[in-house]
Amino acid sequence: MEAWTHRVADAARVRRLEETLGVSPVVAALLARLSDDDAEAERHLRPQLAHVSDPFEAAGLREAAERLLRAVDAREPVAILGDYDVDGVTSTAALVHALRRLGLEARAYVPRRLDEGYGLSMGAIDRVLGEGRPALFVALDCGTNSIGEVARLRAAGVDVIIVDHHVAKDGHAADCILVNPRVRDPEGAPWRALCTAGLTFKLLHALLKVLRLREDARGTAFAVRDYLDLAALGTIADLVPLRHENRILAAHGLRALSEARRPGLRALIEVSGLTPGQTLSSTDVSYRLGPRINASGRLADAAIPLRLLLAEDGADCAEGAAQLDALNRERQEIDRRVTEEATRQLGAMAEAPALVAHGDWHPGVVGIAAGKLCRSLSRPVIVLGREGDLAKGSGRGVPGVDLVAALQACHDLLGSYGGHPMAVGVSLPSANLAAFRLRFAEAVAGQLARGQPAASAAIEIAHWVDPVALTPRVLDELEMLQPFGEGNPEPVFGFRGFRFDRPVQRFGDGESNFRHTLSLPDGRRLGFVAWRLAHRAPEPGQAFDLAVRVGWNRWQGRRTAQAEILDLRPSGRS
Question: 460-570: which CATH topology?
């Protein structure tokens, strides 16, 4: 049983938002808690592509667009390397595809993780240069911290563009065109939290804008909205906050993704158990589409999903999608074992403010285990596998803790590290592991001691509501707040004094789950489902407070109102 918290929204502001935005009191209360700015609340409710900022405002974007167009005009050889995760692969696919529309066939690369590591490495550069020196090298979702690698490319006479969103550690790559809002743009810039897929979307916008300013007919070679699907896929999968420009790209991009106009995406959607044309959610990206792309880069070769996303003919896509599905099943089995073993290992250290697990595990899948453990333990977790004399893996964080800053405090113990505040990759000599565990925990504890909010397993009740108030109109309005994710969590509602009118129906393995259907006074029906809570199901007539997520449950063309019970307790204890 978890703690429940609730912050009451200002009643006068709720009424004002209800009137000015034309929404129900329930949704007005949610918006009032989300932001103190009425205009921002409206933009959040109704995200518009017109609100995406001018790409020329972001440092380096215009310069990058102009250099790419010089390469197009001169038919220069161009090499593009994107990192092997969803963000890197979608960014690479978008830029390669757009350059093809402009008449340039760029060479596309993704790191061979087991041989070259991740990101812009010397090994990856060896491979690129071995196939012929390009005039221009573009690094996507990597490169900010690759100071030596960029210097090597420049010494070989290669121009370099970096489009990245990772935090700079000790300086950053120089003598190149750097697009990285975390390095070059002010704190309040609305594009500062974009991942690389979002920045690449803006780069394509900048390409078209430069052409149109020149009155060049190629300014209509493609429409930037054609790349919203890839921008949304990368944005949602990369765990960046779904606020401001990220929210706009994710909301509009999910609609484009649902249409599945790219043959490769259509095949990926189908093999993931979804139907092209159905409404997709952020959960579908996070738990179905994204993991299949990531599994390839972690276990095999991320060139497989890149080829899939770039395919023009649907006949070429079924085999690639099947490969990704098979790799994902293999990844799931490895992940299950790693998570179980890491859970046992961390049991003895559960009181530490941050945890590090290490075992004989595949370094490519430990990030998924880190994410699961981070959520279950509500604290930062790093999971490391063995690779020779090195411990290599990934970490996942919680709001209020900057993982990159914590790793910077341990830099003398590490071989390499990078990422962003909520997700990092790290490598270190195995001999330094014991010291790293202590130093990393101390660094996180130091952040918390300086006033950053501690991670909490508490359930935050966004709004207390009577189930009768959850009308079809309210459920439709709640869908306007999607996509939910990092920075825009799905709201949890509280029902006070709820009484089940008859015994609940238990189901599943060991009958560990339960469901119920409530008939409301106006004739509507509200379904309930609770996962792994059957042992706490109340008897009929008992008054309980419920913490629930509510929304439409769609099945076979029909929709019904459903509440998912996250927690419950006898009334009066909330």
Answer: OB fold (Dihydrolipoamide Acetyltransferase, E2P) (2.40.50)
